[in-house]
Design brief:
Chain B: One of its GO terms (molecular function) is proton-translocating NAD(P)+ transhydrogenase activity. The complex is a heterodimer of chains A (457) and B (94). By secondary structure, chain A is of the alpha/beta class. Chain A has 17 helices and six strands. Chain B has 94 residues and is an all-alpha fold. Chain B has a domain of 62 residues. Classes of the chains: A alpha/beta (457), B mainly alpha (94).
């Protein structure tokens, strides 16, 4: 009895630590402490579970924890910051798979207590399996293992038929008086196929929203299985993540101006579209760019994923420090979807040593562009395209953008004259106050640094 | 567990999740997604209990997979979140 009490109390403390941890992560100051608290909760919950009376298979248990934990720990330590989104996707998929597997064990044992328990076990299994298969596809796409989007003819109809079939099988399992193994196997296969087919046609740009959605799914699945196993800590942790993940997914979709239903069911508009842009792109050399920024009083840097891929964030920060020494105010403006996930760019800048006080998001900084002498756009494109404000025929019309075009001077670091990732023409590149600095971000900023140094002597 | 008690837990947990996240600045969204991903790694505990009660080889095999995946979710989620958050430094602390 005392052991039972100890276990329940520990689960309770773990649940409190999880919520406090997530709360801590709501501010950059306490975020680090937050994850450590949650980590303590996890270790506590895992350790006391070994004390549960009447359990067997301890050797298998320890082996599975050691194996799964070690592989994930090592790969998590090694992954590059730019590859973080697909890493989160694959770990999330594993959580979904674990929830589905728990339900499978319960089905195999064949003793469900009542219709409600069976219903929740089945729902959790469905959601968990979809999240598992979908996350693996998302990982494969972002990692480049699987190349382009793959769209079936009548994709939406196939999705709906598969979803209905899965729900139908789930209902059959719940309503049947005894658990039919064939039905259960068919149900799991169908759920996995459903997760795969839903995710296949989604393009790389929309993937962060989908990963976030699957994160919420896994949370729900864990919560449902927690009910089946009778562990409140699982219910609380799972449902808290389910709710938080749903909100996070909505925030991301809103920032991209792509409703979740569009992402899942409507392919991204074909490349091009929108009004043709008049004018020509005017070039600037590294020396002139350096001079413009060196004698400015305020420079706003708009970094995009292109900068991160080029690994240029360290050079950019080096340049910012030089400019600051010369008395220029330098800040960073980050679009909510810069990088591959909201906040991804902040992580990449933090990696280069940029203090978070210098990093501002869209609402905070958009009013400041008009007072800035220079907006330096590095590897960003659609998020600074003024067509999103003005051109109703543009595929990105209505998307919130950073108003870099309102700065006195705009310098765009760009590899060449192409239209970039989305294939949408950018009116910013043709404006009278815009100059293009051609070259890879790494090399172009490197040259600017040399010239800034020369000017400061 | 009593059905209504479970329902209350569901409801309160859902509101808690929503409230906790709604005040998070955009700069922490990626670590937070990763952090919440870590928290649902507690599915490991469910997997352990499922494996602990498994009797046939089939149940043991599936239970083993559940623990394996749950442990990977928890360990991986912790490492990547911690790595990301360790990089957020304030200017004063430098």
């Amino acid at each position: 009895m005392a052991i039972k009490w100890l276990i329940d109390a520990s689960y309770f403390v773990a649940a409190v630590l999880f919520i406090l941890g997530l709360k801590g992560m709501s501010s950059p100051v306490s975020a680090r402490k937050g994850i450590v608290w949650a980590g303590v909760g996890m270790v506590l919950a895992t350790v006391v579970t070994f004390l549960t009376p009447g359990m067997n298979n301890f050797a298998l248990m320890v082996l599975a924890i050691a194996l799964g934990g070690a592989v994930a720990w090592i790969s998590g330590k090694k992954v590059a910051m730019t590859d973080m989104p697909q890493m989160v996707a694959i770990y999330n998929g594993m959580g979904g798979g674990a929830a589905a597997a728990i339900a499978a064990v319960e089905f195999a044992r064949g003793e469900m207590h009542g219709t409600v328990v069976t219903l929740l076990a089945t729902l959790g299994a469905l959601i968990g399996a979809v999240s598992f298969a979908g996350s693996v596809v998302a990982w494969a796409k972002l990692q480049g293992v699987m190349k382009s989007a793959f769209r079936l003819p009548a994709q939406n109809a196939v999705n709906i038929v598969l979803a209905l079939a899965a729900v139908g099988l789930a209902a059959a399992i719940v309503l049947a008086p005894t658990i039919d193994p064939m039905l259960v196997v068919a149900f799991f296969i169908l759920s996995l196929v459903l997760g795969t087919i839903i995710t296949l046609p989604i393009g790389g740009a929309d993937m962060p929203v989908v990963i976030s959605l699957f994160n919420a799914f896994t949370g729900l699945a864990v919560g449902f299985e927690g009910f089946v196993m009778g562990i409140p800590a699982l219910i609380i942790a799972g449902i808290v993540v389910g709710a938080a993940g749903t909100l996070l997914t909505q925030l991301m979709a809103k920032a991209m101006n792509r409703p979740i239903s569009n992402i899942l069911f409507v392919p991204m508009a074909a490349a091009g579209g929108g009004e043709a842009v008049e004018g020509e792109q005017k070039e600037i050399g590294a020396m002139d760019a350096a001079a413009v920024m060196r004698y400015a009083s305020k420079v706003i840097i708009v970094p995009g994923y292109g900068m991160a891929v080029a690994g240029a964030q360290h050079k950019v920060w080096e340049m910012s420090e030089l400019l600051e020494e010369a008395g220029v105010e330098v800040v960073f403006a980050i679009h909510p979807v810069a990088g591959r996930m909201p906040g991804h760019m902040n992580v990449l800048l933090a990696e280069a040593g940029v203090p978070y006080e210098k990093i501002f998001d869209l609402e905070e900084i958009n009013g400041d562009f008009a007072q800035a002498d220079v907006a330096l756009v590095i590897g960003a494109n659609d998020v600074v395209n003024p067509s999103a404000r003005t051109d109703k025929s543009s595929p990105i019309y209505g998307m919130p953008i950073l108003n870099a075009d309102l700065a006195q001077n705009v310098i765009v670091v760009k590899r060449g004259k192409g239209t970039g990732y989305s294939g949408i023409e950018n009116a910013l590149f043709y404006k009278d106050n815009t100059r293009l600095l051609y070259g890879s971000a790494q090399q172009a900023i490197g040259e600017v640094i040399q010239h800034v140094k020369a000017l400061s002597v | 567990m009593d059905g209504f008690v479970a329902l209350y837990i569901f409801m309160l947990a859902a509101f808690t999740g929503y409230e906790v996240i709604s005040r998070v600045p955009v700069i922490l969204h990626t670590p937070l997604m990763s952090g919440s991903n870590f928290v649902h790694g507690v599915v490991l505990v469910g997997g352990m209990i499922a494996l602990g009660q498994a009797e046939t080889p089939l149940e043991q095999a599936i239970g083993f997979v559940a623990v394996l995946l749950g442990a990977a979710n928890a360990a991986g989620g912790y490492v990547v979140t911690e790595r990301m958050l360790a990089m957020f430094k304030s200017k004063e602390k430098k």
